Amino acid sequence: FYALYMRSSLAKRVATLHPSQRVLDDNSTSAEVSPERFWGSYRPQVYFGMKTRSPKSIVTGLMWMRQFSSMDVNLRHTCEQGDGLQGYGWLMHDGLSFGVQEVRDKDFTLTTEFVKRRGGDHGGDWTWRITAKQHSSSRQAPVISLMFYAAADTQGSLEAHVEEKKGLGSITGFSEELGHFKITFRKPVTGELSNVKYACYNNLQTVTPGLERLTDIVKNSLSRRFVYSPPSGEKRHYIAVDSYKPPHQQHQQNPDDPRKKSDFLVHQVTVETPFQIEVLFESASFHSRPNQLVGVTMTEELERRKSEFDARFERTFGLERKGFSQAQVRFSKAALSNMLGGMGYFYGQSVVQSAYNEYPLLYPEGALFTAVPSRSFFPRGFLWDEGFHQLLLSKWDPQVTREATAHWLDLINVEGWIPREQILGDEARSKVPGEFVVQRNENANPPTLFLALQELIEQHSSDPDAPTSLPTLAFLRRLFPRLKTWFEWYNTTQTGPVPNSYRWRGRDKDTNLFLNPKTLTSGLDDYPRASHPSGEERHVDLHCWMALASGIMASIARLLGEPHVDYEQTHQVLSDNGLLSELHWSDQLGAFSDYGNHTQAVSLQQEKVYVPPGQPRHHYAAARLVRSVRRAPKLQHVNALGYVSLFPFLLHILHADSPKLEHILRDMRDPDKLWTPYGLRSLSRTDPMYMKRNTEHDAPYWRGPIWININYLAVRALNHYSSVEGPYQEKATALYNELRTNIVNNVYRQYVETGYIWEQYNDNTGRGQGSHPFTGWSALTVLMMAEQY
Ligand code: 6A9
Predict the structure, then answer these.
(1) Span from the CA of 380 to the centroid of ligand 1 (angstroms)
(2) Quick one: the chain helix, strand, coil %, rounded to 5?
(3) Which of 372, 378, 422 to mutate to test the pocket of ligand 1 (most atoms within 8 A of CB)?
(4) pLDDT at residue 565 above 90?
(5) Which of the residues are catalytic?
(6) Average pLDDT for residues 732-755, to the nearest whole number?
(7) Separation of CA 747 and ligand 1 centre (Å)
(8) What number of other Cβ atoms are within 10 A of residue 789's Cβ?
(9) Per-residue model confidence as pLDDT tens digits over 11-49
(10) How far is it, in rounded angstroms, from Cα 384 to Cα 447?
(11) pTM of the model
(12) Which 3-state string (H, E, C) describes 358-392?
């Protein structure tokens, strides 16, 4: 009985939050406490939409489709690579008060702009302006339907106001956080002073069981019974949401869905390009509004903010001063703006599991204000990505970094674990295949948030009187108890058998199905590690992350007047170059390396399937690829040369006068190993695993392609070693200039050629590949241009 009791109480721990005071007060993102950040483009998963930083926000958004096109229904809403847009993203966004986005569809471009205005008690007003222009290449002016919508999320209500010849003229609504408000749809014009254009109006007034259903509901409501009949031109049937309001029952796709239904209203305007439409959100609590934020006033406000943005960008990054071209500066502004415009506010529960749970559990509800790696493919929070994101954002606005980091650390459980991938709420979950949803509490991810904290501390100590210094100290004070537990968690759950060694948990278990079992937890997924996962393993990248983390822990503790000697000692031990070499230097490879139960003699082969004589082979299950091991594994260095071997250099642990640094610089500069004209490849061209698939369905990922986060660390490290005295200082300086130029030029060129910033870059051609847009860590190109590390 006791054992059973113990087990069930242990089972709860994985889903029990850390007991220390939260970094963020419960109302920290509310309209009262943080009115200027209440509304925002916090829905990175849709092409255009806004919500508030509250758990059950009223959401607003835009869908659109082109009429009379050969393709049947081309409804755009959530960012999908399959839509094949020529490019989309924020050109400017200050993370706070305005943004300008360009969306290039097949034969027209939409510019989606928003401006916020403070006033009243509920986060103020905003105006959207959507401008549509046809591409010069298209012969006919496309007719486009814009579908503006508002939806409630289990709380609040929306009421449609249909006007004659204008469809849905406005929506009024109420919610707890927003109070009373009004959304007004203005008519299409060609410019802010011109006449109203011919347009057709339709609307849909219905309910939804959840926000992930909006696209489907609109799709299912579409009808062709409407006629587009411009004053000069033929009459044609077009596709529209049906203004007929069906009884609620018919609208429930799944009558068993137990969730509470929320109001969902859509206003569709169908009009020929070119045109411009404005939508206003006005808070009823804003009494002293001088004028409406529309037309010429809107234009003036936009212009003012654009020039403020330009000036602040130059003040912060100084790219014009450095001689970058106008086009390069525009690219760089877009990269930063996409990271800011890609910030999301998510709310919900992770699904988690520990060794003590037979089935996964729901984590407590929580909020996450975070940047995301990719709006199309991974529009949600990833732990180690976020540290890189905040390196860039902290230069622009340290308040964003404090708030994002605080949200992440407030998600820590009593054990000190933070789920690596945050899939919060139905909308986020609808984008993730089931097998990827459950997060396990053995699993770590690199503690890169320490890099962002290091930046905040440096900002503080370089100017203790700066206006952001006090908030940084207050923030660190509240963060500290959680940081301690977080650090401790790595130090107890991710250690190896040999003292001061570390090992990533959570490697693939089914070893004979993979060429090399993956280590998703390290962030470097399929980067080759020991062929046979075992408790004996030790990982050099994790060792270095811990050296970094202990050093920052010591700095923070010292700054706060907390005990810091232990952290300092840990830092000293982990940074000891002798110990590091003992654990990780491979003489055979002439480089740092993982260690474990390993053999190089592995390959993928067709599984042998027994086929009885005389039987056709296809009657038996298709042979799959399985691993064949030709020589038994033994304890030894893994001897893969690539990103992992660079870590003691990447995180500045290697002494500037270490001869090992020379080896590293040589391997980096060797085109047969890591060097390419576009950046450092992840795995040496001469490594046996170079560009090898892991299974028949699993293409190489961190086995060759160029990744910008690690390249950023490499450039930063070269900059470091070029500034400390040592025998390799000159070499480091030369490499620094070359590598920086190669990366910046290639990411920029790819952007110009393809319209996107990419997840990775091909090491042979430099071409962008993988998910796109990917304006997570690939946007660190901005810091390399600015030479801010
Ligand atoms: C799979 C597919 C619609 C993989 O950038 C996020 C992460 C990195 O943290 C990691 O280092 N990416 C890198 O190796 C992308 C991971 C995406 C996993 C989600 C589900 C959804 O399909």
Answers:
(1) 10
(2) 35, 25, 40
(3) 378
(4) yes
(5) 525, 759
(6) 98
(7) 20
(8) 16
(9) 999 999 999 999 999 999 999 999 999 999 999 999 999
(10) 6
(11) 0.96
(12) CCCEECCCEEEEECCCECCCECCEEHHHHHHHHHH
